[in-house]
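Input record (one chain):
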Amino acid sequence: MDFNRRTFVAAAAASPVLLGAPSAFAHFAEAPVLKIAVIGCGGRGTGAMVNAINAGKSSGCTIDVIALADLFPERVANANNALVEQGKKALDASRLFTGFDAYKKACATDCDIVILATPPGFRSIHFKEATEKGKHVFCEKPVAVDGPGVRRFLEAAAVSRSKNLKVVAGTQRRHEACYLEGIGRVAQGDIGKVVAGRVYWNMGSLWNVPHAASKSDVENQVRNWLYHAWLSGDHIVEQHVHQLDVMQWVMGGHPELVRGVGGRQVRTDQALYGHIFDHFGLEFQYSGDRFVFSMCRQQDGTDGKVEEMFIGCDGAARFHSGGAQLTGAKPWKFAGKQVDPYTQEHVDLQNAIVRGTELNEAQQVAHSTLCAIMGRMAAYSGKDVSWEQALNDEEVLMPETLEFTSRPQAPVAIPGKPRA
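The corresponding structure, as predicted from the sequence alone:
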């Protein structure tokens, strides 16, 4: 991505809350109505639905949720209850969809926007359907778990642009005031040429769902999706994609090569933690002898660190959620108004739809996802992996069709050994 001062100003201008402007639609006699379908009604999908409803207060839109879809009925019911808690009417049974084809039914409604928040393995399949049906999309990150999934998503992204559809990804730092201003300053040269970086997401463990003997392999793995690469991509893809997205933003594009290590030292119980790693350490190489070091870890009792730092010829820049600072020749520290980025990304999407302004982050988030996938490939294999290798890789982790049947758990990757 060629991020410069002009694109920074354009991004900020699309965000009236960040700039303190009045509602973009104050001239409408009545508030524009945007209808939303939610696909994936777990914690993140329900949270995104609430964020979208709250965003309407800033965008000047009336937000109507008209369909809820999920593989599991209890999650649809929970999201429906959350609607009532937001002061909305509960949806009747004809607008509640469950099962593996629920996403198709939701996309077939007269919604304007589809929220995609299922486990990431499903994302490219669901995005393709939403795009074919002409829907604007809020798409959680990451958007695929393998090379074929990224390619499918990129093909659908091209279709979405041809239809002038608006797409916002769940890489919320792209809509966060401190990042927008700080990276705008980096782009205009305040720390000089950027030559290196360090990005981290180190933390403890997350939730897990124990295996239930009464359920099929597929259902057990979907319910415990974080720990299966065919569903999550591993935690480097599912979570660390945020830092790798910032890396691409600051470095001006994708890396040429990655090498690295990883493994599982703590989360070794396969019944609870599937087959994914619990730590990665990677070096992403860019043209001109530039590089970014990346570390992510999910191990209880360890120190946490979630931030991005970049070194320039004339200074350094450090970012974390809620803060940004430049040191060196032109020191600066963010002191502006900080708006909740999880809501702001929906404000920006709603504004773009009603105004008809350009906003499509599909290719951007697909490239950030591929960065994470190539990192996983390098750590799993112990081999250097190029951007082209990852993009053109033929290994399919996520099947296009599923049912609740047996599915043996994938073995833990061992560097130096061929893929199973």
